[in-house]
TrEMBL record:
Protein name: Response regulator
Start and end residues of each stretch annotated as Disordered: 377-411
Keyword Transcription regulation in record: yes
Tagged with keyword Ribonucleoprotein: no
4-aspartylphosphate: residues bearing it: 59
Keywords recorded for this protein, A-Z: Phosphoprotein, Transcription, Transcription regulation, Two-component regulatory system
Positions of transmembrane segments: none
Gene Ontology biological process: phosphorelay signal transduction system
InterPro entries: CheY-like_superfamily, Cyclic_di-GMP/3'3'-cGAMP_PDE, HD/PDEase_dom, HD_GYP_dom, Sig_transdc_resp-reg_receiver
SUPFAM superfamilies documented for this protein: CheY-like, HD-domain/PDEase-like
Residue ranges annotated for the HD-GYP domain, each copy included: 158-353
Length: 411
């Protein structure tokens, strides 16, 4: 249904000739229109700007600024105002020009009342349709914008949920090994920093981060007797332990968005010189994410305190990693790693610690509860501490000469 305006639409009559202006306005007022008048183009532009004016009827030839000038200015400043031009007899050329420049109609002077009213009604009806179309268009655009925002927010939620699910999975593994999840998080940070140094960004960077986060996820499939065994593993137990990259790969490779992380999980124990496992890959056969991870993991293993030893300094760890470039590690990765520098690496570790302190309250509470649980578990462990050595999970397979010597050579 068409919306009925509460008052008759305002029509502005523009003519330098008083008599024409007055006759038209008087006639139109009698027909019930709300008329205002202007004796020139500039005055008309001012009046039209003061109040909503759906229609302007303007003479073409006026002293000073003419009808064309008014038409152009109205089109530019008040595009919702329709314009009907009044032209002199025989001036069809400029009348056509007016239509080309956006006038809705033109009438020859002096216009017949019936022609004038017909033209006004046509112009107003056309404008109403045009305004309705614009409103509809705006509404559509707003709807599209709202839906896009909703969709974006839903995707963000999914991404967050997905990331939290991965974190929970890793936390579950860490809990089983009586480890805090700080190690995994720090390894992700070091891995991402090195990758960025190498110019990796966007989706590839995210996937490498996920691969680093999930690297040991396959340990979920390693029996407790092996994973949590205090002391050294037997050769058979090592065979079990060395299955974890394959188990991890099998676990996540079927999930399409974990395709690349799965490759990193599978090859995270490989070495540049081919002495790693499970496939003895070497050099560029190993996924770049896994080559970067190897350096990041070694750095964190060496610089973190363990129950049975203090972590070494960053200086020592960096020297050791540098020494193992070309054997254990991809030299290009080591170069990017060295580029970050000791200060940069220490800053990453500190940032991770600060992030932990800035957890929102709910997360903080959960974290406190977790810490309390860990403390109670530790008390249990202390009771059992008469057993010498340490759990197989305390130190992963040897990662470098230094780690190997500190870890008690389990490989
Ligand atoms: Fe591993």
């Amino acid at each position: 249904m068409e919306a009925i305006p509460p008052a008759p639409p305002r029509i502005l009559i523009v003519d330098d000739d008083d008599s024409v202006r007055d006759v038209i306005s008087v006639l139109l007022r009698e027909e019930g229109y709300n008329c205002v008048v202007a004796n020139g183009a500039e005055m008309a532009l001012d009046l039209a700007g003061e109040e909503e004016t759906p229609l302007v009827i303007s003479d073409m030839k006026m002293p000073g600024k003419d009808g064309l000038w008014l038409l152009e200015n109205l089109r530019e400043r008040l595009p919702d105002t329709s314009v009907i031009m009044l032209t002199g007899y025989g001036d069809t050329e400029s009348a056509v020009d007016c239509l080309r420049r956006g006038a809705v109609d033109y009438l020859l002077k002096p216009p017949k009342l019936t022609d004038l009213i017909r033209a006004i009604e046509r112009a107003l009806a056309k404008r109403r349709i045009e305004m309705a179309r614009k409103r509809y268009q705006k509404k559509l655009e707003r709807k599209v914008r709202d839906r896009t925002a909703e969709l974006r927010s839903a995707l963000r939620d999914i991404a967050n949920t997905y990331q939290n699910t991965l974190l929970a999975l890793v936390a579950a593994l860490d809990a089983r090994e009586h480890e805090t999840s700080d190690h995994s998080q720090r390894v992700v940070s070091y891995t991402s920093a090195i990758a960025q140094r190498m110019g990796i960004q966007g989706k590839e960077l995210e996937e490498i981060g996920r691969g680093a986060l999930l690297h040991d996820i396959g340990k979920i499939g390693v029996p407790d007797a092996v994973l949590l065994k205090p002391g050294k593993l037997t050769p058979d137990e090592w065979l079990e332990m060395r299955k974890h990259p394959d188990i991890g790969f099998q676990m996540i490779q079927a999930i399409p968005f974990l395709d690349t992380p799965a490759s990193i999980v599978l090859s995270h124990q490989e070495r540049w010189d081919g002495a790693g496992y499970p496939r003895n890959l070497q050099r560029h056969e190993i996924h770049i994410g896994a080559r970067i991870f190897a350096v990041a993991d070694t750095l964190d293993a060496m610089t973190s305190d363990r129950p049975y030893r203090k972590g070494t300094t960053f200086t020592n760890a960096i020297q050791e990693i540098k020494r193992c470039a070309n054997t254990q590690f991809d030299p290009e990765v080591v170069r990017a790693f060295l580029d970050i520098g000791e200060e940069g690496l220490i800053r990453i570790k500190q940032e991770m610690a600060t992030k932990k302190l800035q957890l929102p309250q709910a997360e903080q509470d959960a974290h406190d509860a977790e810490a309390e649980l860990a403390r109670l578990t530790d008390l249990d462990d202390d009771v059992d501490a008469a057993v010498p050595g340490h759990s197989a999970s305390d130190e992963d397979e040897p990662k470098s000469a230094v780690v190997r010597s500190v870890a008690g050579n389990k490989g």
